[in-house]
Amino acid sequence: MAFRPRKRALSQVPNVRAWPQTSEKKLCGFAGYKAGMTHITYIDDTESPSKGSEVFASATVIECPPMTVYGVRGYKAGQVVADIITPDEKILKFLGTSKKKDGKFSASDVSEIFVLTYSRPDMTGMGKKTPERMEIAVGGKDVAEKLEFALSLLGKEVKASEVFKQGEFIDTIAITKGKGWQGTVKKFGTAQQRRKATGKRRHIGSLGAWHPGYVHYTVPRPGQMGYHKRTEVNKRIMKMGAPAEINPSGGFTHFGVLKNEYLMIKGSVAGPQKRLIRLRHAVRITGAPKVPEIKYVSLESKQ
């Protein structure tokens, strides 16, 4: 049921439905754009049989241009109480919005605090200009501290290095690569029938029992494959920093050369190049991060 219905996502900006609870004053998430993949070697610091040895791993590079906070939103009982919008006219003009929805509220009026932010794809080299708006939860001891911290960020830019630390575990939320309308063999991996069975090979043999008199939802059927929202938990940040140290020769395929801060995440991340990736602090793993000892990062051409 976690993967149903397998239909196209409503938006390419995924909605984050759960945020970690933390007493530290910080943003609970960020966003970036998938640039591509590379490979690294590092000293294994886990409790696996290869502990202390140099191991090989694939890694995904996400470019994280600074995000701008243009508003503070208060919630109570799951309902929006009001938004406090930045007075900076340049930001409002860039977003093409106004202060008509600007309101006021205090810490006693709300139970949760979020910041309204937007990304800056125009600061990257991938050619996209339209910013994506999103909500990000705020951490703190209580609502008053969260509101004070959120108001201190109003109208300012926030960098990924101010939110995440190297070696930390995070969760990624993204829209997967779309594959269009596909049949059951490709979509569900059902077996092909023998050539002389019914004159057809790539269809399922039965849609189910005679009764109940309808097709059950678990029966493999053709339909949309890919372009689904997927959340992957406990992805480790192996490296982060300035773009000059990670750009491969000729840039990343279908993306170009990085111009902003980046995060290098161990393993794969959903979506194609240029796809928006939402990042949040891990909701399952807590504790101080261990900085990995990286021995080699491939900067060879990806062309």
Count of alpha and pi helical runs: 3
Uncertain spans: none
Mean pLDDT metric: 92
* CATH overall fold name of the largest domain: Elongation Factor Tu (Ef-tu), domain 3
CATH level-1 class of the largest domain: Mainly Beta
Could you say how many structural domains there are in total?
A: 2
Strand content: 25-35%
Return the string of H and E elements.
EEEEHEEHEEEHEEEEE
Shape, per Cα inertia axes: globular
Gyration radius, to the nearest Å? 23 Å
**Architecture per CATH nomenclature, i.e. the level-2 architecture of the largest domain:** Beta Barrel
Q: What's the name of the CATH homologous superfamily of the largest domain?
A: Translation factors
Q: State the helical fraction.
A: under 10%
Which helices and strands, and how do they pair?
Layout: E1 29-43, E2 54-63, E3 67-76, E4 79-85, H1 89-95, E5 112-118, E6 133-137, H2 143-153, E7 157-158, E8 169-175, E9 181-182, H3 184-188, E10 223-224, E11 229-241, E12 262-266, E13 276-281, E14 293-297
Antiparallel strand pairs: 1-2, 1-13, 1-14, 2-12, 3-4, 3-5, 3-7, 5-6, 8-11, 8-13, 9-10, 11-12
